[in-house]
Amino acid sequence: MDFPGSLRPTVFMTGPLGLSDVPDMSFMCSWRDALTLPESLPQNSENGVPHVAKGLLWEPETPGPLPLLPPGPDPWHPGLTAQDLLFRGGHPFQKQPRVVLDVTEQLSRFLWDHGDIAFAPLGKLMLENFKLEGARSRSKKTTVVSVKRLLQDLDGHQPWGCPWAYLSYRQRRFSILGGPILGKSVANLLGDLLHEELVMRWEQLLLDDAFTGGALAWVPGKTPRVGQLVYPAGSTLDKLYFQEVSLTPGGNPQVLRDPGHIQLRGPVRQVVTRTVQGESLLAVRSDYHCALWKVSRQGRPAPLQVLQVEKGATGISLSPHLPGELAVCSRSGAICLWTPQDGLRRVYKDPDTLVFRDPSPWRWADFTAHPRVLTVGDRTGVKIVDTQGPPGCGLLLFRGGAEASCQKGERVLLTQYLGEGSPESLHSTLHLICTQFSLYLVDERLPLVPMLKWNHGLPSAPLLARLLPPPGPGCPRPLLLGGQDGQLQLLHITGEEASTPRLAGPPQSLPSRNDSLSAFPVLEPKSQWRLQERLKAPTIGLAAAIPPSTSTPILSLFQLSAAGDVFHQCLRLQADPGPDSCAPTVSWSPQATACCSQWLKALLEVPPAPPVWAAPTFSHRRLLGCVEQREVEGKVPEGLRAAMAEGRLLQQRDLGSLPTAEPPPAPEPGPDDELSKRLEAAWEGQAAAWWERRQGRSSGPRQQPKRHKRRTQLSSTFSSLSGRLELSDVTSPPPSPDPEARPRPPGTPPSQELAQEHWARGVPSERQQTLRDYMAKLPLREDALEDASAPPSQTSSIRATRSRQRTLQDNTAKPPLQRDTPEGAFVPSSQTSSIQATPSRQQTPVLSGSQRIRKKPRMGF
Amino acid sequence: MQKSMSDFSEELIKSTTEDDQGERCELSGTGMHFPWLQKHIETVATGGKKEKDFAQTTSACLSFIQEALLKHQWQQAAEYMHSYLQVLEDSDSCKRQAAPEIIWKLGSEILYYHPKSNVEAFNAFADRMKNIGVMNYLKISLQHALYLLHHGMLEDANRNLSQAETWRYGEKSSSQEVLINLIQAYKGLLQYYAWSKKKMELSQLDKDDYAYNTASQNMLDHSWKTSVNLGALIQIPGVWDPFVKSYVEMLEFYGDQDGAREVLTNYAYDEKFPSNPNAHIYLYNFLKREKAPREKLISVLKILYQIVPSHKLMLEFHRLLRKSEKEEHHKLGLEVLFAVLDFAGCTKNITAWKYLAKYLRQTLMGSHLAWVQEEWSSRKNWWPGFHFSYFWAKSDWKEDKALACEKALVAGVLSGKGCRYFRYISKQDHQVFRKKIKRMKKLVKKYSIINPGL
Asked: Which GO BP terms apply (chain B) (predicted)?
């Protein structure tokens, strides 16, 4: 093999990432790569400026990719978002918002939704009887609760998470007595575990490396125009589909027959295919298993081997040199080579990362130009390892550091061998390395010094890359780069064996699935949202084929989304477009929109994913008895009873003309709430009329109300300070204690709604969060709180809250309370109404903070 | 001066605040930076200090430019760029400092690809950009010169580099020093081009001509300047192939063989330099031109063999080893051939196969069966699948019958008559190759290492 006779000048510096003193040549622009040094002058002066193809543009046929296959029958849920994991609301004193995991809310939700899991083990530990602490003077009868009876009470009545559930006296007693103990131990035990889980989920949200490499493969068939798409689908991605596709000369794919599928035992994370010496092989990576199939010429897969990876597999690659050989990486840091002759053999093991310490267990292995030499990669670098040499030795091919002018915090996300094993390929020694910032091409004969560096600037993790064959003789090879969020970039790599690889022309971005939204008909908001979510699903697979064509080369691009959708796009090469030809704007063809509408119709027929939390269902029979016993008269209880007996939802007509429950207080409706009126009018399509009306009114002699309004607005801004507190105190006297604690209807009387959160009202809104955090952090005793050195403006409100709360609890909770646990100590008055109704909430007072956050928008400003 | 001082201090501030930003972006624990973190935070952050309108419009404008560039919409990108220039007046000093670099990067890209742009426009832009801020002067000058060089405007490039060379600002940082060295080296390269043009002219002149003397005097002047310019940079670790090549050529021309050797030896063997195969190749070619002893050549190629066993010079290396008197060299000669054929890019190299077939026979005749067995033992479990499979037998015979015959001989010798490759080729009936195949069969029978007794 020939080595480039003259490499591009580069400074070589050793050192850590982000070494600031390196003159980073990547500061240079993409056109730097187009620059060539005249090798020797005579040649140059004769030939003039070497011609560089300036515009090599793949023109999409449609503005976005189109669905290739109908959506699967299983519902799909987009999963967690940042909103589920992070504290909402800003930190007013920071310039940049900081990431804070919202463990409190998650813990409270966990306790609501999975109370059985959270509390049952404790109950089991305590076995027969609970001996609850209490004053010595009290009799055994009041301090010992029988578990058997308690469970009986709970059976069929206690819906997890329903704040208005029926509670027996025993349960109430138990929860008041046991609340502090149960809450504390459960929160202690669970808190750490939950935090750990949340950290993991958040990291996964930032970077989900499970699908590194991509789970979509194009297996070429008998003729160059026919092939098979292999991809996972189904709600858990555990069905491996084999879909035969034929490419028309126009580039549009036609689906042949129904897809065949193989049911697997785990979600498919990566699908790799290679055709070596005429044999098509297919390797699949799941979380803990890897499997290898041989695909016959007829397209039938025959299983060859299944491997179990105990610690979890992170990557799999097929040898381009020897049929059936594959390399598997495990989270433990081991790399194994499986060959048909020798079976499984561990060739490398290092639990530590290569260059510097990085906690990620992600490992990757690929082949090199030598069939017995592998590359081993992790987040910090890539090493070349000879599988026949002594274990552990090798040479670093890529170092996350000053050698490649890496930035601070830069990590390897993907490495890929670009050679195909055939001696014809020009890049048989090149390796692609992608980080979150840049793309590097490294030649294995010149380790550490990248031959090419390009700052891709993708707004998501580039976990997918495909090097395609040249679309025509003498053309540069297209390199597809796919980000997790669907962004696609196409680069052209050129360079014969004796010259360095470089970019031919500027890289190009390709339309993503999001760009297809305009092809779908307009829907009502809920369905529209669903469609958008579906189109925004992460891209987990990328495949492309260049069918042989007579005229302009065509690129058929397939992408797989996490929802299991396969989209297709056809691109046409526009070599050397004229100087003025800008990429013409393409529009949707009627066929394309028809295709989209059809797909959408099928999508909307798929039932939506069941919500993660379902409303509690509970037995009502015993409750029904209670209601009947009391023999209450009137239409309302009758309707209620009838609905309960039938076990259906209570509806308005069952209750007849009920005194309409007052709506929850509107957000500070001024005397003349202009915005809501305008919105109302706009909603009814009479915005213009409203405007007319308003114009007429404001030009009239009604200046005074306006000023008045302005003042009230202003004052309402400030009202949150002092005056308001007394006001709400007046309007809501402490609700009288109700020993029966009847379930309260959802429509809480407005007076109490107002009372809620009024402690918070005394504090400027921007300080409420701080106060909450502060109070949540301090292991306050109740009395200690009074002396807490809070700013005077706050202490007053806290004191007010405290005192109110104390009176309340003195009234409600008759048994003496041991209130020295931080959780118990802090039950702000915002919860007063619910404390009454559901003493069970005291068990988990931690959640009160987040409950408040959720209610906040109702408060008005 | 006042202005530039404040610029400088701002730039110092910038470097620290950038670090802070880094700390902010990273997730506790992993230390990794996520460019998409901000996007996630924005979905939850409701409060906090909002970006100013100005910052919002400029960042939106920036993303429009980037999008237009990736869609090759140069015209549109240029229009957005026009608006983006307002970022230079950002009240946030951090952003204002980072702006020139971004503007240069995007602006030069637009001007490079824009169909209506020309060298004059590019020059004007580059000259303007050089003088905004102080940190980018050298980098922009260098890239500007490269642009001119690429467009064949050597004079202008030279003038640009000369200007940049003398530029200094504040305390000389090491990155500034490297940049100045690079600029000088490129200047040296330009001088080399001029020199080699003169050399061409000179070779066409008569030695007795009057013009010859002035021309050669000119050349001497040039060489002196060039050596100063090139010498400094190639001391710094890096890949300096074009510089080293031209420097050595000039040194050699003026008979400074020792100087040239020193430069090349340093370039090849200095441990601070990356292991660049070209460094060894240049040294080898130099020694060959110098007619250095075979021992010396072998020792240079031995190192190249360690770095790039697949290089085409390895066949030359094999020839040298074969000619050597030492037995260990003969053994190495076999090793080198096997190593070359290990690589995917060399599987169809007929010369290598020919050498191996011939050398195997020679080695076995010299009763060094152990050497062959040693090489073969590490390959016997994968060479048959890699080289000697039925698939390759068929395709090689179809594409290159001569290659197929050589390979079949090697296959037969190494893995016996039962080898599929050998069997397939030996069964072929072809007029031209009939004799060759017959001879091959005979040789395999005689030398195959599988049944040495027979």
From this structure: transcription by RNA polymerase I
CA-based nearest residue in chain B for residue A81:
B40
| A480 within 8 A of A439, measured Cβ to Cβ | no
Banded model confidence at residue B359, pLDDT cuts 50, 70, 90: very high
Mean pLDDT across chain B, nearest whole number?
83
Number of CB pairs, chain A paired with chain B, less than 8 A apart: 293
Give the Cα separation of B104 and A90 in Å (integer): 35
Sheet with A343-349: list strands edge to edge.
Answer: A313-318, A326-330, A334-339, A343-349
Backbone angles phi, psi at A543, to 5 degrees: -145, 150
Tens digits of residue pLDDT in B164-179: 888 777 666 777 788 8
- 8 Å CB contact between A202 and A85: yes
**Residue type present at position A426:** L
CB contact under 8 A, B44 and A437: no
Confidence tier at B143 by pLDDT (50, 70, 90): confident
Predicted pLDDT at A804: 41
Cα distances (Å, whole numbers) of residue B10 to A22, A235, A818, B1, B175: 20, 54, 59, 14, 18
Identity of the residue numbered A87: F
Calculate the alpha carbon distances from A639 to A616, A747, A748 in Å: 21, 18, 20
pLDDT at A735 over 50: no
Instruction: Report, in this order, helix, strand and coil percent for chain A, each rounded to 5.
Output: 35, 25, 45
- CA separation (Å) from B252 to A722, A827, B245, B286? 91, 89, 11, 9
Measured distance CA(B129)–CA(B123) in Å, rounded: 10
The alpha carbon of A21 is separated from its chain's Cα centroid by a whole number of angstroms, namely: 37
Does B24 contact A at CB distance below 8 Å? yes
Measured from the Cβ of residue A544, the count of other Cβ atoms closer than 10 Å reads 20
- Torsion angles phi and psi, residue A263, rounded to 5: -85, 125
Range of the domain at B67: 1-132
Most confident of A239-243, B88-92, B203-207: A239-243
Q: Is the pTM of this model over 0.90?
A: no
d(CA B203, CA B253): 13
Assigned domain for B368 exists: no
Residues facing residue A440 across a β-bridge = A433, A453
pLDDT of amino acid A245? 92
Contact A721, A762 (CB under 8 A): yes
Number of structural domains found in chain B:
1
B295, with CB counted inside 10 A (0-12, 13-18, 19+), is exposed
SS3 state of residue B349: coil
B254 within a domain of the structure (yes/no):
no
Render pLDDT for A25-67 as a digit per residue (tens, 0 to 9). 544 555 665 565 655 433 333 333 344 445 678 888 889 999 9
Of the ranges A124-133, A530-539, B11-20, B212-221, the best mean pLDDT one: A530-539
C-alpha distances (whole Å) from A530 to each of A84, A243, A606, A702, B312 are 18, 26, 11, 46, 59
Q: Which of A27, A372, A408 is opposite residue B33, by nearest beta carbon? A: A408
Query: Of A450, A360, A370, A368, whose CA–CA distance to A405 is shortest?
Result: A450
Predicted confidence (pLDDT) at residue A842 exceeds the cutoff of 60: no
Chain B CA closest to residue A319: B386
Residue B384 to residues A305, A386, A858, B306, B355: CA-CA distances in angstroms? 21, 19, 76, 25, 19
Interval A691-729: pLDDT, tens:
777 777 655 444 444 444 444 443 333 333 333 333 333
How many angstroms away from the CA of B396 is the closest CA of chain A? 12
Please name which of A269, A282, A262, A266 lies closest in space to residue A215, comparing C-alpha atoms: A269
Does B110 lie at the interface with A, CB-CB under 8 angstroms?
no
* Sheet architecture: strand order including A452-455: A412-417, A430-435, A438-443, A452-455
**Measured over all CA atoms, what is the biggest interatomic distance in chain B, rounded to whole angstroms?**
94
